Every structure is written in C-alpha cells, then in structure tokens.
C-alpha cells in the first residue's frame, strides 16, 4: 500500500509517498519518496501508476454550504487555533481527477452529538480506506494533532524545527538524505502522507459537517483547543526609536511647590 500526501499550491503541487518498512522490532518505519513539484495532472498521473493508494490532499474540497461564511470544519479548526486553508483551483482539480478513489464523506449518525453550528467529530472507522481512499487534511492541523498543541508558524525557524522533529519521531525516513534538506512544502506533503497512513490503520478522527466535507486528523479525538502554552519561548525585543526618545526627552522641570511635610496635606 502506498500512502500519499499532497501539499497544494496555487501553481505547483508537491507529492510525497510513504511505505511501511517492517522490521523485527517495532515500531513500523515509513520510507518517504519525494517527487518534483508538478501540475495537478502530473501528480494524478503519478498516483495512478502506484497501484493501491490512500491519498490525503492538503486543501479544502469545496466551499461552505449556502448561508455559512465558513465550512463547519474550518470554523472548528479556527476555534482550536488553526487557520483554515483557502479554496484553490488546483485543489479542486485534484479532487475531481481522483474521484474514483472515493472521497471520505462519513454518514451523519442519528445519535451524533452535534454542536450548535453543525459541528460533529468522530473516529474514522477501521478499514474505511477500502471504501474511501481520498480525504482532506489541513496540514497545520495534522501537526497540531500530532503534537497535542499549536505549532509555531512555518515561516519561523522553530516552526520548521518542530515539524521535522515530529516527522522524525514518527519514524518518517528520507532515504535520499536528511529531512533538513527538504523544502517546507515537502515536509508538509510528508505530514499529509503520514496522516494517510494513520487513516488507513484506523488511528484518525474527522471533524466537521458531512454535508459539506470534513477534515481528517491523526489521533482518536481532536482536543477542544490546541494549547499555545510553551510553543514560542519569550525573547526580549527593544522598541524602535526608544534610544532616540530617551536622548531627546527634556529633563523634568524642578517643581516650585515644596514637598509637604509628613503631617501636612498635599497642595
């Protein structure tokens, strides 16, 4: 089985594939294969050549239903501290071209606990990948679920470090070198591929409204909020212009009003 993740861009798409490498001693290691960025058509063609696949796409599969500003899954992620991803044409093209894999749209259970805005969350049923081998992820939410807290921004050096460390701890290995040699889009595609593996082995949950699409995250249940505690260490920063203001500020004028004695009222 090939577990594929796609980091979706406006023009070029990044594909990563991971395969299980079973050894005598657990845990299972995942060997990653990174591809050159390409168009949606080129990525789809490559996936079609791989045989049995499970595919996670790092982009929304559609717009919110009429009357909603955000999809339920996007609003739920935002409440948890994860920014929704925008709908892009390349992402929609990937879903359309891979529709034969059957996109994951769970049935809404009659006894489901539904939030005020239609939010639902449930565990992905074991073996679901045999019926639906295509699903949506928000890559930042994948990392947050793996870490159990919010992530530093991908533009922050600590954000890159944390993402690579997480993949390393999850036994994602790069035979072509070191994950530190990879671009951030490749790291995100690897995280999506890791989520495809978790989805296939029955260790994933979904969040949202099945009527408009859901997002899948690794783990048994997403927390109500991803904590930001300890995510970025506090560092000192000087205010711009502080030195100049200190030099140009006039000395305080001496008061002509005498200080009151301890037993006298102030003037």
Describe, in short, the structure shown.
The protein is an alpha/beta fold and 267 residues long. Helix content is 27%, strand content 18%. The chain has one domain (2-240).
Give an overview of the whole structure:
The protein is of the alpha/beta class and 267 residues long. The protein has a six-stranded mixed sheet. It has one domain. It contains seven helices and nine strands; from the N terminus they run βββαβααββααβαββα.
List the helices and strands and how they pair.
Blueprint: E1 2-7, E2 14-21, E3 29-34, H1 40-48, E4 53-58, H2 72-79, H3 89-97, E5 120-123, E6 134-136, H4 139-147, H5 157-169, E7 172-173, H6 184-200, E8 204-209, E9 213-218, H7 242-248
Parallel strand pairs: 1-4, 3-7, 4-6
Antiparallel strand pairs: 1-2, 2-3, 5-8, 8-9
Helix pairs in contact: 1-3, 4-6, 5-6
């Amino acid at each position: 089985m090939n577990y594929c993740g796609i980091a979706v861009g406006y023009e070029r798409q990044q594909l990563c594939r991971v395969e299980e490498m079973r050894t005598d001693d657990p845990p299972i290691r995942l060997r990653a294969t990174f591809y050159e960025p390409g168009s949606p058509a080129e990525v789809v063609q490559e996936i079609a050549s791989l045989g049995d696949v499970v595919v996670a796409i790092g982009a929304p599969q559609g717009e919110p239903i009429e009357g909603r500003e955000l999809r339920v899954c996007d609003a739920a992620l935002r409440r948890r501290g994860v920014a929704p991803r925008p709908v892009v044409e390349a992402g929609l093209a990937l879903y359309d071209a891979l529709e034969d894999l059957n996109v994951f749209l769970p049935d809404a259970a009659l006894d489901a606990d539904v939030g005020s805005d239609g939010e639902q969350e449930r565990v992905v049923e074991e073996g679901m990948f045999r019926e639906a081998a295509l699903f949506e992820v928000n890559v930042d939410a994948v990392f947050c679920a793996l870490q159990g807290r919010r992530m530093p921004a991908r533009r922050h050096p600590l954000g890159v470090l944390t993402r690579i460390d997480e993949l390393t701890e999850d036994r994602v290995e790069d035979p072509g070198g070191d994950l530190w040699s990879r671009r951030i889009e490749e790291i995100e595609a690897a995280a999506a591929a890791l989520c495809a593996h978790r989805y296939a082995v029955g260790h994933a949950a979904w969040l949202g409204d099945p009527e408009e699409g859901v997002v899948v995250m690794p783990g048994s249940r997403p927390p109500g909020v991803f904590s930001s505690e300890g995510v970025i260490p506090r560092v000192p920063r000087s205010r711009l212009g502080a030195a100049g203001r200190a030099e140009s500020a006039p000395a305080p004028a001496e008061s002509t009003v005498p200080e009151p004695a301890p037993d006298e009222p102030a003037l």
